[in-house]
Amino acid sequence: MQAWRVHRNGEPSEVMRLEEADRPAPGEGQVLIEVLAANVNFPDALLCRGQYQVRPPLPFTPGVEICGRTADGRRVLATPALPHGGFAEYAVADEAALLPAPDALDDAEAAALHIGYQTGWFGLHRRAHLQAGETLLVHAAAGGVGSAAVQLGKAAGATVIGVVGGPEKAEVAASLGCDLVVDRHSEDIVAAVKEATGGRGADVVYDPVGGDAYAKSVKCVAFEGRVLVVGFASGVVPAPALNHALVKNYSIVGLHWGLYNTKDPAAVRACHDELTRLVDGGAVKPLISRRVGLDGAADAVRRVAGGASTGRIVVVPSGAAR
After folding, report:
1. How far is CA 102 from CA 162, 180, 280, in A?
2. What is the CB-side half-sphere exposure of residue 224 using CA atoms within 13 A?
3. Which of 76, 107, 202, 268 would give a disulfide with 98, using CB separation of 3.0 to 4.6 Å?
4. Between vectors from CA 51 to CA 37 and to CA 267, what angle results, nearest 5°?
5. 23 CB contacts (<8 Å, ≥6 apart)?
6. Model-level pTM?
7. Which tens digit of pLDDT belongs to each residue from 261-312?
8. Are the C-beta atoms of residues 123 and 117 closer than 8 Å to each other?
9. 104: three-class secondary structure by DSSP
């Protein structure tokens, strides 16, 4: 089969190589999956760089999220068991963690429903306890993770303010349903949020960016608001001033979705059932900006890592790209 492999750590465009490789052999409790679509995630770049919390042995195949077909014909969602990731024609995954792909979504859309939407749902509902009528501020609202949070926030009955970088991304965020879009390149985030909320601020902040986004967030979070820390796409991990959180009465809430797979797998399945219900009702649908063939995977990872993409870029090994 063909597979992208990383033999040394570095930038994705430099270290990812498309090679002929043997099909991976499933271990105990695992299953071989034909990859129908592999969603590109920021962690794929971190894996290549050796900066992710999981460091698979070299060489490895990146690709942390797929829609695929099992030998018995089931169309499933999976997080492949590294080092045999999803940027290949076949991957392996733990049988117990497989989720049924929603019939309402095609392969690329289904591949993008898993990690980003699970992260959004657990973050907004289990960790930040978002309520209908509250104001949700979403950073990188036109990106893969942010777009999921926007849709889930609207489905929960929140007023959603999306922060983006540039007019093209502003159009995307607006099309996703943001009630207000703030272009960080030309607008003052703090002033815009305070004006939109009558000075109160955002009840929940969804931050997959870190750095300056976090610094702006704590200046416009509401009394008893919750700042949800999801990731650090900016590359800068904030150092929270806890005296500031004390004085303003807000909470800093962390989320590592992967822990639920080991700590509470039943909750992951229940979340998937809820996401499927939202998909069937038309409340959420992954935004796929581009489909590429297997040979385009390295460039796709580069684009996502550089923040140049909107929505999701999905690798379709069969060649049904557009």
Report:
1. 27, 30, 8
2. 4
3. 76
4. 55
5. 1, 32, 89, 90
6. 0.93
7. 999 999 999 999 999 999 999 999 999 999 999 999 999 999 998 888 899 9
8. no
9. coil
